[in-house]
Structures are given as C-alpha cells and as structure tokens.
# Entry
Amino acid sequence: MTTVFDPIDLSGTQLTNRIAMAPMTRSRAGENGTATDLTVEYYTQRATAGLIITEGIQPSVVGQGYPFTPGLHSAEQVASWRRVTDAVHAEGGRIFAQLMHAGRIGHPVLLPEGQTPVSASPVTPAGQLFTAEGMKDFTEPRELTDAEIRATIADFAAAARNAVDAGFDGVELHGANGYLIHQFLAPSTNLRTDEWGGEAEARIRFAVETVKAVVAEIGAERTGLRISPANPYNDIDEPIAEAEKVYPALVKEIEPLGLAYLHVMENAEIRDLTLGLRKQFSGTFIINVLGPTGPDDHKVIDDGIADLISYGALFLANPDLPARLKAGGPFNTPDAATFFGGDAKGYTDYPSLGE
# Structure
C-alpha cells in the first residue's frame, strides 16, 4: 500500500515523500517585492517536505493584493529568489513558485499611482483589506479588456519563465480562493457576455489559456494548477451545482496537456466532486483537506484519494512536519496571532522535534 512517506516521481522531479507544504501568504517581502534572509530561512527549514509550494507571488505589479508580498516580474526579484531555491536544493528539497494575481482582492494604495485592481467584471468584493495605512474597504475593480486579458496571460507566462530562471522546479498557477483566475471561473464575479464569460465553457477560458501559455513557456512537467471548487473565500459565490459544471469542464481541457499536478483545496461538502476530478485527471493529484488540516488527514493517501497531501498551518508551526508525522508527534500548535506580524514567532522560531 502506498503511504504518505513513500517517494513519488512528479513528472520527472523526484520527491522524497508525499507531504507538500501548502502556499501561505506571509507578507514579509523586502523592498521592491524581493525575497529576504528570513524568506531563505523559512523555506530552508521546511525543505524535508516532498514539495514546497511558495506563498503567492505576483506575476505583475497590478497583480499585488496584499502589502509586503513578493513578485517575480523584475530582475531584482528573480535574483532574490535564487538564494531561496539554492538553499532549499542544498538541503535536498524541491520547490514550486505559486503565481498569484489577486485581481479584485487589493486596493489602489498597494499599486503605483493611477492604477486600480482589475477583474473579470466590475464587481466589488464585500469586506475590507489590511494595508500599511490600516484597514480599507475594497474598491470596485476595473474590468479587463480583451487586450488586457491577453496581456495578463502573457504576464503569467513571463513570470513562469522568471521562476525557472530563479531556480524553481516549477510553478503553480493559483486558480483558487477568489483570486483572478477564480474570478473568471465563478458566476458571481464573471458577468461578461463576450468570449471570456457566460456559460461554464466560456468562464473556464481564461484559466485554460493561462495554463496553456505557461506550458508553452516552461513545459507541462513544470506546471501545476490549484483550484478550490465552491470555496466562498474572498466573497466568491460559486454554488455546488455550478462547481459541478465548471471544474469537470476545466479539467477536461487541461488533462491532455500533461501537467505536473492538479492541486485541489477541497470543500468538505463535495468529496464526490473531488473523487470525480481525481478519476478525470491522470496526473499527480494533490489535496488540501478543508482545514485546519490535522495530523491524521494524510490517510487520504492511504485511501487512494490523492497522491500528495498539502499542509498549511501545521507546516507553519512544525517546520520538520514529515518527521513529526512519521513519529506520531508531538506537534507544535500554530500561533495565529503572529502569523502575519513582524515577530518571526509562528514563522521560524518553533521548537524542533525533541526539544
């Protein structure tokens, strides 16, 4: 029986186990969106993961959705990430960069003067966003034109090339959690009547074309996609009945490309959809069980539901998580109060196994 501790071949990239570190926004980038010494330390500490998937990295200036998040759209940023990938590889780890365009989840104060967040349609999300100036109400995003959509797809492809140049083993396109790709997929945020919107077959087009552009740039074996069917995060309204149309249609289009993996952030109410996508997708299937993911959830590997399982907060609190899972604990408790603050506790300073 295959277990979570067995190695796996990820489209030519050899992973030592089936435990992935899920992408988690850290908001600790340096000046001009660069990776820092703390970034190097953070990812190197977790290099025993079979696969590290980084925090969301914006593929363009307008893709930024939170303060102090990193990019992969400048030479300076590429050089800063090379230090991270070199350090992770020196420890025997493998690391993919998650490319995340936040779309409407952002604010003009995060962007160069005169720019505003963009989206599939001008639908303002409910709620507020943390910025360096304090909490701000979300603003109405500007609807992307056809030419801008194509330019955004090109931005993703260019950022993927930058990721490979920075030493990453591959990239994950963030099509989940209410960010730009998800905004095109969901009926509540894509009200378009042109070729990029309407029925499910049209709403998947932006995701499909972005995946194809990245594959053409760096190869399918270096490309993964993350999705979150029916996830209401970031004020997305995606009914289960709609998700049951959209995601099988999306997977049908990307399946022939031979991607490195499909990463599903699961809604606990739709395990049947997860199993259907698992059957439909012939490549490596990663699941992020709707959290918080616990130490026993890796049984999805034993049960054949997925090939890898990704852990978020548990990996944050336990940098040596694979060893702890194998030993049956003990497990540090995530300290949510310091996840996003300037204090590195909850980031790099948790006790190691045996301390």
Q: What stands out?
A: The mean pLDDT is 93. Residues 177 and 233 are 5 Å apart (CA to CA). The longest helix spans residues 146-165.
